[in-house]
Amino acid sequence: MPSSAGLTALGESTRLVSANQPAVFEILPPPGMSLRTSDCVATVLSPSKSKVNARITNEAANGAMRIEFTPKEVGTHIIEASIGGTKLVGGPLIAKVYDSSLIQVTDVNSGIVGQACQFRVDASAAGEGQLEISINEGEVPNHVQVVGGGRCLVSFTPEQAKPHMIDIKFNGETVDGCPFICSVADTSRVTLNLSNLELIPVNHPATFLI
User: Fold this and answer.
1) How many CB atoms neighbour CB 193 within 10 A?
2) How many helices (H) and strands (E) does the chain have?
3) pTM above 0.90, yes or no
4) Which of 11, 56, 133, 177 has the fewest beta carbons closer than 10 A?
5) What letter does residue 30 receive in the DSSP assignment?
6) Where are the beta strands (DSSP E) in the chain?
7) At residue 164, what are phi and psi to the nearest 5 degrees?
8) Separation CA 210–CA 205 (nearest Å)
9) Which of 88, 43, 81, 37 is closest to 63 using CA atoms?
10) How many Å apart are CA 36 and CA 157, to the nearest integer?
11) 117-132 mean pLDDT
């Protein structure tokens, strides 16, 4: 942020932050202002409007004050900060908290060479972020259809009869359970001989060959 007579935030004032991990913001006072942690006030409000405990230190090597807290709740957290009554330029800091462990992957079934496979990804409870989906380390193209509400349908067409590894990341974090494995078979190599079933006597075993 550009410097001015007030406090400024170092780095982006709005950030994506992982739940249950320490979030750190640094604020820089105007030139000539002496820093004491007792002069710094920081209030962190969760999406449910409850206060989140914040730790304030002046341990930063650049002379900035550090505000550190650990969010538990997914959603937008608002950080109001001031030093000696001087507030941040541009308004409060914003932490958009996400939780990749809340993503659900379903309907990963076996597939057949040359036929489309589909599975579902539900990120509706995980917060704001970007999904990255790769099949066999990107070797197999996939198509993502957004169905709304943070949910999507993913499809791909396997060309080889081998296990296909599905890797999913959310904001760069690997989703729990990865890699998901889709077993793929080639039915073109399967032959079926039903010649023994043309005329079948009752009360006798019937056999055929696969």
Assistant:
1) 10
2) 0, 20
3) no
4) 11
5) P
6) 8-10, 14-18, 23-28, 40-45, 51-52, 54-57, 65-69, 75-83, 86-87, 93-98, 104-106, 111-112, 117-122, 131-135, 143-148, 151-156, 164-170, 173-174, 180-182, 184-185
7) -105, 125
8) 16
9) 37
10) 61
11) 96
